[in-house]
Amino acid sequence: MHAAEGKADQDDAVQKYGKRVVERFEQAGVLGPRTILAHGVHTDAHEHELLAQTHTWLSHQPRSNMNNAVGVAPIPEMLARGVTIVMGNDGFSNAMWSEWQAAYFIHKDHTHDPRVMNGFEVLKIAVENNADLATQTFDGLRIGEISEGAAADLILVDFHPITPLTTENLPGQILFGFRDGIVTATMVDGKLLMKDRQLLTLDEEEIAAKAREQAQKVWNKIN
């Protein structure tokens, strides 16, 4: 669920209930390892402690936050207190590498410190932590690794680095070199879903046409 995305969320909670958003969740028994809170932009140190103590997941959506002009989530502070952060997109788009880049840059700019949110931290959030969340959610299914017994979920990328590719600079290679268009094939559970950039199981044009129809119906209803 969304939590403290905008300042108004905290103002409303304090005014009506005398408690901050995450404190209310804790009091109601909502927090815990089966709960994912989105955003957490306007949270304080005590709320971070509650999230860490209860092993609640916090999903970071930097581009959505920028688009809605709600502020910058205090992710470095949360990490320092032991909160488990995962990477989301809040439906903004499915371009997750762009989300990685936004997380990498915005905290540097916000804190005026280029050392904040380094590439390995972004990689841990977006790959390791997201994989751990998926493993918990899907009954022990292992993803994010190439090993016996893990899900055969893979992508192939057409990437030609202009500097040597090493384990030490892998995060930087991804953050500065990867774009959605370089994905040439996708596989889920060993089944090819896209090959040579062509979808094999879905009609993209038909889906887009139906989506436009539904979007117009939604706007008509709103208006």
Structure in words:
- There is one protein chain.
- The chain has 223 residues and is of the alpha/beta class.
- The protein folds into 2 domains: 1-150, Metal-dependent hydrolases (TIM Barrel, Alpha-Beta Barrel); 152-223, Urease, subunit C, domain 1 (Roll), CATH 2.30.40.10.
- 46% of the residues lie in helices and 14% in strands.
- The chain has helices at residues 7-17, 21-27, 45-54, 62-68, 75-80, 96-111, 119-137, 170-177, 204-222, and strands at residues 2-3, 36-39, 57-60, 84-87, 154-157, 183-188, 191-195, 198-199.
- A 4-stranded parallel β-sheet has the order 1-2-3-4.
- Strand 7 (191-195) and strand 8 (198-199) form a beta hairpin.
- The longest helix has 19 residues, at 119-137.
- The protein is globular, with a radius of gyration of 20 Å.
